[in-house]
Structure formats: C-alpha cells, structure tokens
Design brief:
Strand 2 and strand 3 form a beta hairpin. The protein is built from seven helices and eleven strands. The chain starts with 9 loop residues before the first strand and ends with a helix. It is α/β, with parallel strands linked by helices. The strands form three sheets. It has a seven-stranded mixed sheet, sandwiched between helices. It binds cytidine-5'-monophosphate. The site of cytidine-5'-monophosphate has 18 residues, from helix 3.
Length: 236
C-alpha cells in the first residue's frame, strides 16, 4: 500500500543518533536487537509499507555509519537511504537531517527511530494535516492526571487533563516551515525536545493528530521488554 495521489515529494527523516544511555547497552539505541532485528529496521518497515522508506534520511552517529548501513542493507534488499551525521542533541541531529533532504521535498515526516510501532493511520494523518496546516504532530490525549512539581518534588499545580496530550512522532511539516523554526531556534540558542514546539514558539499553528499507546518510545529496559511482548503477542 502506498500514499494516495496528490501526495508528492514527501521524504522521511529518522533521527537515530541517540546512544540509548537509559538502556545501558553501550551502543546506538537504533541498533539494539528487538525480536531478532535492529530497532531501526522495525521502525523503517512501518514506513516501507507506505512506500516512504525509499530515500529516507537516516541521521546516525558518525562512528556507527558502517554498522547501520550494513544492518539496513541486510534488512532491505539494497541500501535506499541517505545518510546524515547526528549531533550531540536530537535538535542538532534533525537540523543536520533537514540539510540532507532532496531539493524537491515539500513535506518532511520526522519520526524517532525509537518508536517501532507507529500505526499507518498516524503517518497518513500527520501528512494530511501538514499539507493542510503546515505543521502537525502525532500525540495522544493524556489518560493520566499530570502533576507539575517543584525542584523538591512538591506539587505545584495540576493542569486540566482535558487539554493535555502526550507528544509522539511523526511530526510532519512543510519543509519551509520547519527550516524556519530551526533557524530561529538556533539564532536564539533555544534547545527543545521536539520539532513541533519549535514551530509553535515562533507563532506557527501545529495540528495534533491522534496517535496510539502502541507508538511508545523505547527508552528503558522495561520498554524494550514491552516491545518484545507487543511483537510476541501479535499486537502489531
Ligand atoms: O533520546 P530520545 O529517546 O528522546 O531520542 C528520540 C530520538 O531521537 C531517537 O530515535 C534518537 O536516536 C534520536 N536522537 C538523535 N540524536 C541525539 C539524540 C537522540 O538522533 N543526539
């Protein structure tokens, strides 16, 4: 299955340069084994099903380039990706990836290598919303009450849950919109943890698109064990 007609010049960008410190594996998180395949391969397979893996920009640690390229060649019959060197922070990695986009790319889909179970509906929904509004992020309405605490772990306030969403990826943008937001952030020395917020802080509108609890980010050993169970249980 591929994207419908009218959707052109879409390119995928995968930040995969994180070292997975919280997993304690001593190697890039994207290369961690999940049920016999590297995490990155699981993640890219979700997009391959939509014809979006071709030409994807993979942003990885420079020292792991050969290993990552080898893993991708083994999983996908040939190497069909573009490489960009990652940086010390996710925002720098994404910025490097934006520099590596094809000149004709109009819509960029930015998705964490560490989220292997993104549903097709979320990918499609984020692309449609970015085409309409210029910027979109996948997110899920919070089912938990979220507490704001102070430095000493005392409750400061409890925002209205009805307006709280947990941020996920893909975050999808018109290329001009996200390039401008990154340029502004770098000019102002602002370091954020996601790209949609960079657009919002410069006055851009960002549409929230329904994600899924299965689209969690593999961060800890517990997440990795959960991901193994998702696969073993046939949930994806
Ligand atoms: O660290 P965290 O899990 O939040 O990272 C989210 C995504 O960003 C991961 O796929 C990770 O590989 C990527 N990342 C990156 N460059 C960094 C840090 C994280 O590409 N310096």
């Amino acid at each position: 299955m591929t994207l419908g007609s009218g959707v052109e010049h879409v390119q995928l960008l995968i930040p995969a340069a994180g070292m997975g410190q919280r997993l304690g594996a001593g190697r890039p998180k994207a290369l961690i084994d999940l049920a016999g395949q590297p995490l990155l391969v699981w993640t890219l397979s979700r997009f391959d099903a939509l014809g979006l893996a071709d030409g994807a920009v993979i942003v990885g640690p420079p020292e792991s380039r050969a290993e990552m390229e080898q893993a991708l060649t083994a999983a996908f019959s040939e190497y069909r990706f573009t490489w960009a060197d990652g940086g010390s922070e996710r925002q720098i990695s994404v910025c490097n990836g934006l520099d590596a986009l094809r000149p004709e790319t109009e819509i960029v889909v930015i998705h964490d290598a560490a989220r292997p179970f993104v549903p097709e509906s979320a990918i499609r929904g984020s692309i449609e919303a970015a085409m309409e509004f210029g910027a979109a992020t996948v997110a899920i309405p919070s089912t938990d009450t979220i507490l704001v605490g102070d430095d000493d772990a005392f409750l400061v306030n409890t925002p209205d849950r009805a307006r709280l969403w947990a941020c996920q990826t893909p975050q999808t943008f018109r290329v001009s919109v996200i390039r401008e937001a990154h340029a502004k952030a770098s000019e102002e020395d602002h370091l954020g943890t996601d790209d949609a917020t960079l657009v919002q802080r410069t006055g851009g509108r960002v549409k929230l698109v329904q994600g899924s609890p299965l689209n969690f980010k593999v961060t800890t050993r517990e997440d990795l064990a959960l991901a193994e169970q998702v696969i073993a249980g046939g949930l994806v």
